[in-house]
Amino acid sequence: MAENHRAIVKLREKFADSVLDVKEFRGEITVTVKKDNIVAICTFLKDSLNYNLCSDVTAVDYLGSEPRFMMVYNLYSIPHKDRLRVKAPVEESDTVVDTVSTVWSTANWLEREIFDLFGITFTGHPDLRRILMTDDWVGHPLRKDYPLQGPDREPYQGRLS
Amino acid sequence: MASTEIMTVNMGPQHPSTHGVLRLVIELDGEIIRKITPHIGFLHRGIEKLSEHRTYHQIIPLTDRLDYLAPMSNNLGYVLAVEKLLDIKVPERAQTIRVILAELTRLKSHLVWLACHALDIGAMTVFIYAFREREKVMEIYEKLSGARMTSNYFRVGGLSAELYDDFEKDVREILDTFPGYFDTYEGLLTKNTIWLQRTVGNGVISAEDAVDAGITGPALRGSGVNWDMRRDNPYSGYEKYKFIVPVGEKCDTFDRYKVRFVEMRESVKIIRQALDSLKPGPILADAPQVCYPPKDSVYNTIEGLIHHFKIASEGFPAPVGEIYQAVEAPKGELGYYLVSDGGNKPYRMRIRPPSFCNLSAIEKMANGGMIADLVAVIGTLDIVLGDIDR
Fold this sequence. Notes:
The structure holds 2 protein chains of 2 kinds.
Chain A: H1 6-14, E1 19-25, E2 28-33, H2 38-47, E3 53-61, E4 69-77, E5 82-90, E6 96-98, H3 107-118, E7 121-123
Parallel strand pairs in A: 2-5, 6-7
Antiparallel strand pairs in A: 1-2, 3-4, 4-5
Chain B: E1 7-11, E2 23-29, E3 32-39, H1 47-51, H2 60-64, H3 71-86, H4 92-121, H5 124-145, E4 154-155, E5 158-159, H6 167-189, H7 193-199, H8 207-212, H9 218-221, H10 229-232, H11 253-276, H12 295-300, H13 302-313, E6 321-329, E7 332-340, E8 348-352, H14 354-359, H15 362-366, H16 371-381, H17 385-389
Antiparallel strand pairs in B: 1-2, 2-3, 4-5, 6-7, 7-8
């Protein structure tokens, strides 16, 4: 079913080299693409396939596996009322991704948050500053190797679940 | 001609009309706004990080503290996400009760919006009235869950407890009295010259810009985009209810005000339909590996006690996978993106907060306007800092 999805058919046609994987889970379609082509793919999805609302941009840290980070774009099409998830793997040695804030301006703040909490930088971003943590904060809290209790502290000895 | 220079003014984080700890650095040319730089994060508690260290049930109380004016909507989005990940079906009675409570929450949240928005613009009477009515919803919350704000009432698979005896009577009283109260508020505001002068033509954002900026919820519908997830991607049985999705035309603060008013009236209709269709039945899914056992069996049988203990201490494992579940929260699209590695805690939980994306459009809406109108724009966006900072 995933292969017949309107976006997957077009992406396979147009960006055959970039599509790495297509998955369906609980009725949700996830397509994994190479990060190099992310802006072209997102522009195509927005302009030709009407994915006009960028619901969410986030990242996941898969510490210990290669590639370490995964960019996740949750897109929604208001005219077609369907969702699509686009993912792009990011190597730890090269945590740089092109910004999609030129495609959807929502991505501006969402990418700032990823920069703040994961330390992934975005080329071409108009205003890449920390957003939730203070400007002088050291480290990126949502990385898996960042301790829950914060840096330079004894590990929490109480019971956390 | 006198020479002019740009003056930088700091607004917040302690300012009554920023609705919490929002700080705006504003560059002014006389009274005209030239640039706004929002500073957020003062209320950041790291809920996404904390969630990676808690079992699925232990996260529910954390979600109460996101948009603290609409805790049950946050709970609803989260439990639906986990249920989708686990692929369990919730009994009809639990779904209907969830809809009733989610719509009561919408009323409660919109009443605070109305109260604070009106107070910011100078209409103090409405503030007192709306908080009086909100108290009635809070009383139901308190009788139901023991807490006025952090309800923690929903559970993965259903609800934590059966409704109290007079629940239906209390809700029917709200349904019968609230439309009259709405008429009172509208009588005070809708044709009020001062109100019109402050809201008509203020904070205009076109439909295309609003979608591009990621605005969702009533703020988007005020710009004329006819999209409501309750109707277009129904969840928790919303497809069974008839209601109108209001849209605005002029994309300004006054249209967003009207949209929210119609939404409140529609919420009353949805609650009435749901209450009429409420039938006796189970309130928890038939999934013993996930749901807590009934209290009777916990207190009186050793098997029940062990069962309860296992779920409370270990939680339950979720299948490997990732899902995104969004609900139409009072402020817009509230999404939960869950990644599971097969363990009893989420590998990653991302919360897509509606207020965060709505606030990011503030510069587009207020730039070039007067500084006094900025307060109206903040009010019409209906932001909650607990939701923005997480």
